[in-house]
Amino acid sequence: MTRTRIIEITEEAARRVSSEGAAKRSGGEKHVVRLAQLKKQRPEAESRDTRVSLPA
Amino acid sequence: MTYRYDLETDADPPFTDALGTQIVEFAVGYDLDEDKAVLMSVMLVPIGEAHDLRFRYREQDLSKDWKVSAPDYSREAVKKYVPKKNRFEVLTQLLRAVLALLGAVSPENITMETFTLNLPEEAGPKYHAIRSVLEADGYRTEQHFRDETTGKDYWLFKRRAGEYAD
Q1: Contact: B18, A26; criterion CB under 8 Å
Q2: What's the pLDDT score for residue A46?
Q3: Interface confidence: ipTM more than 0.85
Q4: How far, in Å, CA of B138 to CA of B21, rounded?
Q5: Mapping DSSP to helix (H, G, I), strand (E, B) and coil, where does residue A34 land?
Q6: CA dihedral of residues A22, A26, A27, A28 (deg, nearest 10)
Q7: pLDDT-based confidence at A49, cuts 50/70/90?
Q8: What mean pLDDT is predicted for residues B4-18?
Q9: Which residues of A touch B (CB under 8 A)?
Q10: Cα–Cα distance between A29 and A48 in angstroms, integer?
Q11: Cross-chain Cβ contact A17/B8 below 8 Å
């Protein structure tokens, strides 16, 4: 494989992963679960803030 | 913005995006105020007779998990998302992701390029580590050169005859 061809491949790969289409994912369901767990932390934090602001 | 570094050490198996790229991603941190996670995205992109190995940070929307940013190739992203003292453990996860991709795809030819011009000295060990992992997994370095026009380093790895990834 020529050096020119190696450079062409890397350039084409860079374009492909940067394109909008690459962002539309399939699979990776387990990862979604992990992210969902992270997201659950926010309502807990907001709940704590609300309790602190309530009058005695 | 309240970004927190929080490395995910149990990355999921490879998955395929809509364009056929095999990907392993693991979270390096998240920002709940911005409703996003920061991921290291490690990819094997099929292009013609080779697969291109690339890795970079992406931001993922926590509400719409399919919505991810384009890879961020800047050095600022590294400084922003990973504390200096934690970079070795991120590299360790990156190498694990590379091995997982090799196990899933086992491509004949793999290309790789540096993201920065005239490879900075501090970035050298990272690429050396990736090269070592590939060579330990049945590949030989067919070519390595720096292109004077682009200023980047390029590699071509070829699977040794009779060698298959586990």
Answers
A1: yes
A2: 47
A3: yes
A4: 21
A5: helix
A6: 40
A7: very low
A8: 87
A9: 1, 3, 6-7, 9-10, 12-14, 16-19, 21-28, 30-32, 34-36, 38-39, 41-42, 45
A10: 30
A11: no
β partners of residue B159: B139
Residue pointed to by tokens 């940067």 = A18
Amino acid at site B64: K
- Global pTM exceeds 0.95: no
Rg (CA), chain B: 16
Nearest to A26 among B16, B60, B147 (CB): B16
Contact list, A19 vs chain B (CB under 8 Å): 19, 70
Three-state DSSP class for residue B151: coil
Q: Among residues A37, A51, A33, which one has the least CA distance to residue B32?
A: A37
Q: First vs last Cα of chain B: how many Å apart? A: 42
DSSP string spanning B86-145? GHHHHHHHHHHHHHHHHHHH--SEEEEE-SSSS--GGGHHHHHHHHHHHHHTTEEEEEEE
Helix (H) or strand (E) holding B47: strand B36-47
Q: Give the span between the Cα atoms of A20 and A43, in whole angstroms.
A: 31
Query: φ, ψ for residue B15 (rounded to 5)?
Result: -130, 170
